[in-house]
Amino acid sequence: WEMIHNNRCWIGINTSIPNIIAVEAIKGNVIQELSGDYEIKREVKYGQNSRIDVLLKGKKETCYVEIKNVTLLENEFYQFPDAVTERGRKHLYELINMVEEGYRAFMLYIIQRSDGTIFKPAEHIDPEYAKSFFTAYKKGIEILVYRAEVTPEYIEIINPVDWRF
Length: 165
Prior knowledge:
- Helices cover 23% and strands 39% of the residues.
- The chain is built from 3 helices and 11 strands, in the order E-E-H-E-E-E-E-E-H-E-E-H-E-E.
- The chain has helices spanning 17-27, 86-100, 127-138; strands at residues 3-5, 10-12, 39-46, 50-57, 62-70, 72-74, 77-80, 104-111, 118-121, 142-150, 155-160.
- The strands form 3 sheets. Strands 3-4-5-8-10-11 form a 6-stranded mixed beta sheet. It has a 3-stranded mixed beta sheet with strand order 6-7-9. Strands 1-2 form a two-stranded antiparallel sheet.
- Helix 2 (86-100) runs parallel beside helix 3 (127-138).
- The radius of gyration is 15 Å and the shape is globular.
- The mean pLDDT is 96.
């Protein structure tokens, strides 16, 4: 099952698609913040028994990129997570550790729908994740939010989306 239509737009629900299209977008320089001359590696072990979704290794820097799929929409806000996620909090703290070791670290939220306006953490669903999100941002994690165009013919990242706390 790849997508569903809610009478307004297609919504991509396959949670493995964001990682695939994120790598394509990085290679195609669609995600400007991650553009550069990098070797791209996927699912690399790091931290405390974790795997990073994308590791970008360049001559000048190494960047850790964790990718999350966003399908929840409430009151025009795209939101993550859609359920309590201890694993999601763990990823944020692993990225904080990478920043403290001198690397760049990104949380990349891929929105697989087109009927909202702004992204924010779903504090009402997982207040601990929302607190961890804020902490990660303050500690230097770079927050990226991009929307994907979802159609029966293709799914591709097309534009950045604003976010707030």
